[in-house]
Amino acid sequence: MDNSRGYHQIRMALEDEEKTAAFITKYGLYCWKVKPFGSKNAEATYQRMVNHIFADQIGCNMEICVHDMLFKSKIKADHLANLRETFNQLRKIRLNMNYEKCSFGVVFEKFLGYMISARGIEPNPNKIEALLEMKPPNSYKEVRKLTG
Asked: Which residues pair with 69 in a beta bridge?
């Protein structure tokens, strides 16, 4: 699942709003009331928030990396119960998801550049295509160039 508008759903602390002044006009100071994208600590703040909200599920039936969530279950009934619990929690805290970017009931899914399935974690075929097509190195210099 993918979070919709990510950081813009995190309310700024009242005392921090003035620190994010976007611009000043004759009508007053305009500042962010929610976490702006590009903010130095936005990603860490968001990760802490979702880790706190879903602490009971992370590592058991859910993995989260910033705004991407992955659900895992061996039994369909468990999967549906876990999703129901998550959606109830999302509704309770008014956190919106981008349902157009969500996939449900899939056997495998791309997550953080890898393919996740019942077999485990595998490299994304699109990412390793260049390596598979590459000619093997023929000299020490070519090996060093390849490994950086």
From this structure: 64
Q: What is the DSSP string of 94-131?
A: T--B-GGG---S-S-EEETTEEEETTEEEE-HHHHHHH
Query: What was the pLDDT predicted at 49?
Result: 86
Q: Which two tokens stand for residue 81?
A: 């119960």
Residue 109 Rama label (left phi>0; alpha psi -120 to 50; beta) = beta
24 pLDDT exceeds 60? yes
Judge whether 68 and 111 are in contact, CB under 8 Å. Answer: yes
Q: CA angle, corner 116, sides to 82 and 69, nearest 5?
A: 45
Question: Which pTM was predicted?
Answer: 0.64
CB 103 within 8 A of CB 96: no
Where do we find the tokens 């976490």?
Answer: 35
How long a stretch of residues is the chain?
A: 148
